[in-house]
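Supplementary Note 3. Input sequence used for the single-chain structure prediction.
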Amino acid sequence: RAPDPAADVGAHLLWGLPLGAPARVLVGAALDHRMSRALAVARLHAAGPADRERALDVGLDPRGDLPGLGDAVDAAARALLLAAARRALAELDAAAPGAVADRPWDRSAALVRASERAVLRAVLELDLGGA
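The predicted structure, written as discrete structure tokens, is reproduced below.
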């Protein structure tokens, strides 16, 4: 959650994220439009009032995301994104069953979770511009 309600409202208005809830954004394991959106959401949450005021002057990029707002905001945004990936990976690992039953649903669920872990590990290995 954003510590500042203005960031929460901004994420809701810009990208339809739910008010008062943690931001959840689908990301890919590459620097594609989904990762750009995740970085934009993280920038908004990392930005203070003065940074958001500056963002009004900068404007949105062609995809409707916040561009970089300076080294300090971008570093904080990268830290937020990587911390979220680490938390999600830890939650998946903590919830992992010991043995997977040999039923189609259980095998499918295990495959999905393994894929989620792989994407999170790839995100943690991405070069996010100094993270």
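Residues 31 and 127 are 9 Å apart (CA to CA). The chain has a mean pLDDT of 81.
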